[in-house]
Amino acid sequence: xxxxxxxxxxxxxxxxxxxxxxxxxxxxxxxxxxxxxxxxxxxxxxxxxxxxxxxxxxxxxxxxxxxxxxxxxxxxxxxxxxxxxxxxxxxxxxxxxxxxxxxxxxxxxxxxxxxxxxxxxxxxxxxxxxxxxxxxxxxxxxxxxxxxxxxxxxxxxxxxxxxxxxxxxxxxxxxxxxxxxxxxxxxxxxxxxxxxxxxxxxxxxxxxxxxxxxxxxxxxxxxxxxxxxxxxxxxxxxxxxxxxxxxxxxxxxxxxxxxxxxxxxxxxxxxxxxxxxxxxxxxxxxxxxxxxxxxxxxxxxxxxxxxxxxxxxxxxxxxxxxxxxxxxxxxxxxxxxxxxx
Length: 341
Description:
Blueprint lengths: L16 E3 L2 E3 L3 E3 L15 H12 L4 E8 L11 E2 L3 H16 L3 E7 L16 E2 L13 E2 L2 H20 L4 E6 L4 H6 L14 H4 L1 H14 L5 E8 L8 H14 L3 E6 L15 H12 L3 E4 L5 H9 L5 E4 L1 H5 L3 H10 L2
Parallel strand pairs: 3-4, 3-13, 4-5, 4-6, 6-9, 7-8, 9-10, 10-11, 11-12, 12-13
Antiparallel strand pairs: 1-2
Helix pairs in contact: 1-2, 3-6, 6-7, 7-8
């Protein structure tokens, strides 16, 4: 891929980007991809050091550590990372330090899988959701969270962010898509509550807004804060861009610095794996209608596609997944190709 770009003098992909107090060395983000390799307690290990460290050596600007649960029942499977104990945070510390030594910045995605906890979860008796409705016929029956329990989870996000900050993480991303717990509250297809956390658009978005405010307070004014947000449920009667845009404006005022655009997953049969999604268009809509910086994640499989997304003002950062799994040194190969002009 890099050969086609070798005679281009500069690549926007390799330009630095300053967000709050952080300067990223380039616009490439290693997308957070669950690797199912944590131990039973949710701690990272030497496997993660090699996995993330090799992409840092390979030139990635921002290494985003995969979805890390903020509470035990939030782990999606038995190999999921957690960030709800000091031991889990300590296990991340050497990974963060090594990536920094290679010149990369490090982010961590914080989340809770809610009713989509898998069958190999170590906390099956605690599967929770916005309501008591399971995701599908083969899913576990979730416990419907009380308002008090929701408040406890808001606090848990803040505590996880504080732990991440203490071990040197540079960026926090909140996972509010894929039909996981926060997305379940946002979507009218899945939130049938009444009261402070459901019943109308303002109440449906309160959980996410409370989390952003708590995380911003925990990580301080200098750390960038992203939200991985479902922009479209890909289903009739669901959450769509016109619903997301006013919430994004509220998120920006609450301290969110960028939207990582996603779609689908709230209900069965309506995921981006089943329905084609133009992620560039989703990100471009957000950027154009709100002015909030965006990240394109999904569907970027070449340097040309990444550069086109940036050059077309669709996004400010590009998250790369499968391409970096097959070639950890992809970014360095781009650097070499531009230097060889």
